[in-house]
Amino acid sequence: MLSRILIVATAIVLWASPIWAAEVEVLWLGHATVRFTSVEGKVIVVDPFLKKNPKTPAEYKDLKALGKVDLILVTHGHSDHTRDLVELASLTGAKIVGPYGYALNMISLGLIPGEKFVGMNKGGTVSPLGQGIKVHMVPAEHGSAVDYTMPGFTLEPNSLRLREGGVPVGYVVEFENGFKIYHSGDTAVFGDMALIREFYNPDLAMVCIGGHFTMDPVGAAYALKKLLKPKQVIPIHYGTYPVINRTPAELIEALGDSSIEVLEMKPGQTLAF
Ligand SMILES: [Zn+2]
Fold this sequence. Notes:
By secondary structure, this protein is of the alpha/beta class. Helices cover 25% and strands 23% of the residues. It has a 7-stranded mixed β-sheet, with helices on one face. Strands 7-8-11-12-13-14-15 form a 7-stranded mixed β-sheet. The site of zinc ion (ZN) has 5 residues, from loops.
């Protein structure tokens, strides 16, 4: 009897402790731009595109509204994923993780200080915020040209406006409490998404559904049901421009009787996990 009381008391203490109360916060800012706040308050921004992002709420057009940023993850060089990278990095002093070729380009052009950019490649894992948070770089099927008309860089006359930006990638971020989020970057559906599940088994997937440049709702539903199999999904990279005007409702329909929960967010909304 006493041991049963002790077990119950221990369970109550554990339940009430901060370890169990701690959550990961996800703020979606429209398109592929997301801010994660970790259990211990580390702030990670993925693909900063705010000032000219048609879906970013007005208050976040001022990059200072993001508050402190410890780390920026870049999925590829396209300007709708990197346009505010240089300014946000210099404003916050955040470290950056991105594809190695893209890192070299940005460093050699003097846009990002070398000591700030952790260049890596698919299959690698880094922990620039300490061992509590792991960042796994995973494949994506896409292109990655960098638009050098971006802020902070003046083009020489007749120079190439577009250059290769390294391989496009996605990320799985593993937080202090074990919660794992997959951010797809821009990608088509591809069979090796099954390996992302095998290796990392993400709890939450944030996947592009807009079509034209990436998976559409039918492709995303296939990826989710057959390959990634997360518990929950937040659709991203849709509705920003007319050419990618697909909807979460289409994703829900394509998922059919799947148990995967679709969390439709409004830009500027936060959810805790
Ligand atoms: Zn892209």
